[in-house]
Design brief:
The protein is built from 20 helices and 21 strands. With about 550 residues, it is α/β, with parallel strands linked by helices. The protein folds into 3 domains: about 10-210, 3-Layer(aba) Sandwich (Rossmann fold); about 220-370, Rossmann fold (3-Layer(aba) Sandwich); about 375-550, RRM (RNA recognition motif) domain (Alpha-Beta Plaits, 2-Layer Sandwich), CATH 3.30.70.330. Strand 3, helix 5 (about 115-125) and strand 4 form a beta-alpha-beta unit. The longest helix is centred in the C-terminal third of the chain and has 22 residues, at about 375-395. It binds adenosine monophosphate (AMP). Adenosine monophosphate binds near residues 31, 34, 53, 253 and 254.
Length: about 550
């Protein structure tokens, strides 16, 4: 997949104006359905496209459509039919954005909205009408919509429209349009009724679909959370809170989304953005911060993350569902490398479940559909962390952290100024409102820059300790590893190395404390010798380390 030269929007034959609109939206490259559909539609062919929501199908038909509109002519030149009001509005907004530089006017008409208003707009003259079949027919009957000059018709989500019983309405509407029009039909599924419809109303349509091939997926835990667009940021905050990833890449579709998310997540330094708008120096700087652990989160587009070589990423988070199953596999391949534990999390909008299903088919695996953590879940999690952090502190005689906790707060000079902010990866709005703020600041001697995300989770629980605790139980032994923060070691590296090299389950590893020069980690006594042997033979972050029991330290 990587070797193929990716297509660009410019190579598809789009005009400078429309390319400018796409650039402003932050689209970095066309999706596979766009690569196939756009040149065909621009050449005037009828097209049947098999594509689910989330694949970029709207732009696939709307970009050629806005190219072919004559904005000077105020008659309706293009008609798009969609099954629901929501989709009609969404498609109209997209067409409006793509056609804005060419001053293409677009109107959505659907049931449930005052018809008078729609009539007024139609009278004023629009180039593109996007509507639900029932309301379109209503306008045709009232003679408030004239389709006599339509040159371009799109049936979007044709299968849904047929399921909803719109077939007769659709046929009646099509007969109002000129025979020589161009027609595009997009549908996620292809029951015979769609073939019938195409047969009767399309002229030698070209069929396109995105080829999917079975791919090997790494052994990673795969979870999906269903969440509507407006609540994604809140959901992401909660999921990060619950998962406390050691290091994560968060994928967005567009450059603009990457920038917006980076801004929403608060301190830009902790979650830097990586996208095609950066020059090589900026890109290198971001990557260095992510690699050396200064930043625990990386927010990226697929294009920017292509070819990214990061040793271990504990979590891949699809803030937007990838537009093809292949991209999904590609993204999640960045975690769970070399047999280590990894987690892939996908935020999926209700409408995008079809695409999720396609992904499941490709990876031949059911993706767990989880419930977004409630505030109560997060409280329980914080208590858990608090309990383990206290336990650890008592075991290690690290009472200093409590002294720090009650001492006057000191600003660490970066984003962490008084009053204490919520954990940096939580959305500053609106999620922060519902969150309890940490009662103590991070131990100032550790500084904010080198702290891990797990550290911040401990802060959230109310204790500023540098250790990460993973439900250690039973007879534990502390091991000394001769690599620490200076060499960029993070809890994820230690868990990854022990799990990957010694085969120990992540949840049987106990407290991990990373100091500047060394790391202390608790493992079950029964596995200690094996872990020492395995780690002594391997490398952590590419460096050979001395590993021994920590008793005499
Ligand atoms: P759709 O499948 O048409 O519902 O599109 C899903 C989402 O992908 C929409 O939010 C679009 O704005 C976005 N999108 C479409 N094409 C691209 C692209 N080439 N690059 C990035 N995002 C895109």
């Amino acid at each position: 997949m990587d070797e193929e030269i990716p297509a660009t929007f410019a190579s598809l034959g789009l005009s400078e104006d429309v390319l400018g609109a796409l650039d402003a939206l932050g689209y970095e490259e066309p999706t596979p359905i766009q690569v196939q559909a756009i040149p065909l539609l621009l050449s005037g062919r009828d097209v049947i496209g098999r594509a689910a929501t989330g694949t970029g199908k709207t732009a696939a038909f709307a970009l050629p459509l806005v190219e072919r509109i004559d904005p000077q002519d105020r008659s309706v030149q293009a008609l798009i039919m969609a099954p629901t009001r929501e989709l009609a509005v969404q498609v109209a907004e997209a067409a409006h954005r793509y056609g804005a530089p060419r001053r293409v006017s677009v109107l959505a008409v659907y049931g449930g909205q005052a018809i008078d208003r729609q009539i007024r707009e139609l009278r004023r003259g629009v180039n593109v009408v996007v509507g639900t079949p029932g309301r379109l027919l209503d306008h045709i009957r009232r003679r408030t919509l004239d389709l006599g000059k339509v040159r371009y018709v799109v049936l979007d989500e044709a299968d849904e429209m047929l399921d909803m019983g719109f077939i007769e309405d659709i046929e009646a509407i099509l007969t109002e349009t000129p025979m020589e029009r161009q027609t595009a039909l997009f549908s996620a599924t292809f029951p015979p009724r769609i073939a019938d419809l195409a047969e009767r109303h399309m002229r030698s349509p070209e069929r396109i679909m995105v080829q999917t091939r079975q791919l090997e997926t790494p052994l990673v835990r795969q979870v999906a959370y269903t969440v509507a667009r407006p609540y994604k940021l809140e959901a992401l905050g909660r999921v990060l809170d619950l998962e406390a990833p050691a290091s994560a890449i968060v994928f967005c579709r567009t450059r603009v989304e990457v920038d917006e998310l980076t801004e929403s997540l608060g301190c830009a330094g902790i979650a830097p953005a990586l996208h095609g708008g950066l020059n090589q120096t900026q890109r290198d700087r971001v990557m260095k911060r992510f690699r050396d652990g200064t930043a625990d989160l990386l927010i990226a587009t697929d294009v920017a993350a292509r070819g990214l070589d990061v040793e271990h990423v504990s979590h891949v988070i699809n803030y937007d569902i990838p537009q093809t199953p292949e991209v999904y596999v590609h993204r999640i391949g960045r975690t769970g490398r070399a047999g280590r534990e990894g987690t892939a999390i996908t935020l999926v909008q209700p409408r995008e479940h079809g695409l999720l299903r396609a992904i499941e088919r490709l990876v031949r695996q059911k993706i767990e559909n989880a419930r977004i953590p409630t505030i109560a879940d997060l409280r329980t999690r914080r208590l858990e962390l608090l309990r383990t952090a206290i336990h650890e502190t008592l075991v290690e005689d690290e009472f200093d952290v409590y002294r720090d906790a009650v001492a006057p707060r000191r600003s660490s000079g970066t984003c962490w100024t008084s009053p204490p902010p919520p954990p940096s990866w939580l959305p500053t709005r609106p999620a922060a409102k519902s969150r309890t703020r940490p009662r103590t600041s991070r131990s100032s001697s550790r500084g904010s820059e080198g702290a891990t995300m797990a550290t911040r989770t401990a802060d959230l629980a109310g204790v500023g300790t540098a250790s990460r605790v993973l439900a250690g139980a039973g007879n534990m032994t502390r091991l000394f590893i001769s690599l620490g923060r200076r060499r960029g070691v993070r809890p994820g590296d230690i868990v990854g190395a022990i799990a990957g090299e010694a085969g120990l389950a992540g949840n049987s590893i106990g407290a991990i404390e990373i100091a500047d020069q060394f790391t202390l980690v608790e493992v079950p006594e029964s596995a200690a010798d094996d872990v020492i042997r395995a780690l002594s033979r391997s490398r952590i972050k590419g460096i050979a380390a001395t590993v021994r029991r920590a008793k005499d330290d």
